[in-house]
Design a protein that fits this description.
Layout: E1 13-16, H1 18-23, H2 26-31, E2 38-42, H3 43-50, H4 53-65, E3 70-72, H5 80-91, E4 94-97, H6 100-108, E5 113-115, H7 116-122, E6 132-140, E7 147-150, E8 156-160, E9 169-180, E10 183-190
Parallel strand pairs: 1-2, 1-4, 2-3, 4-5, 8-10
Antiparallel strand pairs: 6-7, 6-9, 7-8, 9-10
């Protein structure tokens, strides 16, 4: 859990945008202590996030973490992207985002950025062609004879010739891996 950080020049400062708040996964990084420090949210990002029930829920959870949450005033008539970049520079904060647009703009200006999607993708288990995985088949796949199972972290495994193995654990050799916006999919064959 993120403890209240006393103000000092050494404290970690993080700036969150509306998309990251609505996404919500960043909260767990603070909750488990992987990230700790002070959280800043520009008013425009706060207002945009509040329009979504997920955003409102994320704000409530952040306030419970006691991370020194601070809503920053935003000048009128400025876009969220421009405000995020301005605030990150002014506060000396590291930007945490799921937005490629905001992340790219900040990186071009030399600002420190944590791309949450890239971070989470890098934590997915690695599987190379030829690796053998064990998976419980939970349902039939879309293709003829395919079975589908899941590894930890929600990695989907499509197993050729395993459509009749629902409810059973099988060994399968990885033929191909695909990373999608919703996670990783392994295409395999029975051993």
């Amino acid at each position: 859990m993120c403890a209240m950080v006393q103000s000092s020049s050494l404290e970690s400062r993080f700036l969150l945008d509306s998309e990251t708040l609505i996404d919500g996964r960043v909260i767990n990084l603070f909750r488990i202590g992987l990230l700790s420090g002070r959280i800043f949210i520009p008013r425009i990002s706060y207002e945009l996030a509040r329009e979504s029930s997920k955003g409102r829920s994320a704000m409530a959870q952040l306030q419970q973490l006691k991370c020194g949450l601070s809503i920053q005033p935003s000048p009128n008539g400025i876009s969220e992207v421009d405000e995020i970049v301005r605030a990150a520079k002014e506060l000396g904060a590291r930007l945490i985002t799921v937005s490629e647009l905001i992340g790219d703009r900040a990186e071009k200006l030399g600002l420190p950025v944590i791309n949450l999607k890239e971070l989470l993708r890098s934590l997915l288990p690695r599987a190379d062609p030829g690796d053998v995985v064990r998976v419980r088949i939970v349902k039939r796949g879309k293709g003829s004879g395919e079975g589908v199972g899941y590894l930890e972290f929600g990695v989907k495994v499509v197993v050729d010739r395993a459509g009749d193995k629902v409810g059973k654990e099988v060994a399968a050799v990885v033929k191909n891996a695909l990373t999608t916006p919703s996670g990783m999919v392994l295409f395999t064959e029975l051993v």
